[in-house]
Structure formats: C-alpha cells, structure tokens
Amino acid sequence: MSAAAISPSLFEAARLGDIRAIARLLETAQPDIRRYARATCRSSADAEDATQEALWILFRHVGTIRSLLALSAWLFSVVRRECLRLARRAGLVPAVDEGEAEAALLLRPEADLRLDVAAAFEALPPHYRDVALMRDVKEMTIDEIAAALGATRQTVKARLHRARALMREYLTR
Fold it and tell me: What is the pTM of this model?
C-alpha cells in the first residue's frame, strides 16, 4: 500500500477514532488491498472476501496500529492470512498453522534469536541484504533506498519482499 497516499494527519485522526478519517482511510487503502488480494488469493471471489475482511479488521483495529509506516505491512499480512484461511477452507492448502513456526521463534532465548536473525541477513544475496538492512535496520523509506541504490521503487519493493520471504524461510525451517 502506498503510504504516500495517506497523510500522517489523516492516519493520526483515524487512529484517534475520527469516523470521517477512518472512512477516508478505508477508501484510500481499498484499491491497494484489493490489488494485493487479487495477486495473493486463489480466486477473484476469495480476493473480494479477503479485501472486505481486511477493511473490516482495519476499521476495528486502526487505533492499535503504531505508525503509518507499519500500516501497509500490517494490512498485507492480514490479507495474506485471510487468503490462506480461505484456501485452507476450500481444502487447497493443508491445515498447518503458519504461525506455529513463527511462534516457535518467540520461544527462543533473545540472544539466540538475535544470532539467528543476523545469520538470516548474512544468508541473503547481497542485493536483497542491502535493501533489507536499509529498510528494516536503518528504517529508510522506499524512496530513500531507491535513490541510494539508483533503482526504481518497484525494484526496491520487489527485493524487500523477496528478502523478507527468504529470511522468514531461513528462520522457520
């Protein structure tokens, strides 16, 4: 989702419960949520269901989202989980809890987890590692990363998505 389309003042007003701001936030987020759902879900019907569920969850939980930067990642994870739930319900994906492996990470001692995350970063190919470090460690924006690397926004987003997927796979195997 393009955080640039959502102003910080709109987000903050929605977070504080302004119903007009929440409605505007939902309107602004809907096209990106729908586009991601169409790319993630197995059918257009599931994509529509996932979009509606994500919007409903955003409406109910907007006050708990810490920052505008966290919004898009949070929303996309909601959509991904909903698409997976719908696929499981249709019997297309085994009913294995995706969160089990990630929950197991939380049971590790913090020192071990830090070492595992560092090893996951090191295991990434350099072009993915650079983007992931700039975004997740240095907290640079997509535009700042694109400028620093001389790449397009789309390239940076694709590399970041792939880097996170590879790290998740590394940490949960």
Answer: 0.53
